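re the bet — no i am not wrong, look at it urself. input seq straight from the record:
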Amino acid sequence: MTRASTAKAARGRGAARTTEIERLARELSSVTSNLLATQAELERRAERVERELECANRELQAKIAENERLRVCDKMAALGTLAAGVAHEIRNPLSAVKGYASLLLRDASLAPKQRHWIERILAGANDCADIVTNLLVFASPDRLALESIDARELVDSACAMALEPYGDPSRWTIETHADARRFAGDRVKLRQAVRNLVANAIDVQPNGGWIGVSLVERDGSLEIAVADAGPGVPDALRDKILEPFFTTRAEGTGLGLALVHTIVRLHGGEVQVSPSRSSRGGADIRLCIPFHLAA
């Protein structure tokens, strides 16, 4: 084979290889384009599925919340019916006990021990009266008597009510702070709510301790907070302590904080339970009421 024919054959093989490489490049480009298109389609499908899952999850959460709301409403309705009957049956004989005990205490000839016994009877009757009041709130939770309320007067009177049953209130140091204008609300119910929170703070510190009570305007809400230096509330119980008849104390009724929750919900607010923000530890319970109720 001559040198010219050899060169010609080499050029032919080179051209063939070039053609093959170009073909492979076109195929690779086509495969790459197909892969990119497939990836884009998979991403679109994944985004669509993710949106559908998010939508389904929101619907599920809404359904769970609605079912829970209906469960609570049914439970509260049943409790209300029961409470109304029990409260009205107890109220009349209880009034008689309180009335006669008060009359007996007017007798100046009573011996100290007799006076002590009668005072114990009257204190017990007052405790029962508080329970009846709580039951009646459950029985008629939708009634609010709105009026203008002075923040300082509300806090001071609620604290006085909470300390009234104790012979030596000096065991507890109560720091109060009221930085709010007059606002509209149900005076009796809100005072009962604050009273119950302070009483709860006293109960978790039976030998005395610190209690902080504040009423302030904050972030568009009227915020009523009661903090204590007691043992605090375990995370697992923060929601349960607001349920009717749930209590961790053998002598408790489980109505105090449940009533607070009911009163706050009536005012369109919410109850927040958290560890105390003070360095003393304990629990911090905040009642947040929409500020449009403030006047």
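see?? Residues 1-141 form one domain. told u. also The mean pLDDT is 80. so pay up
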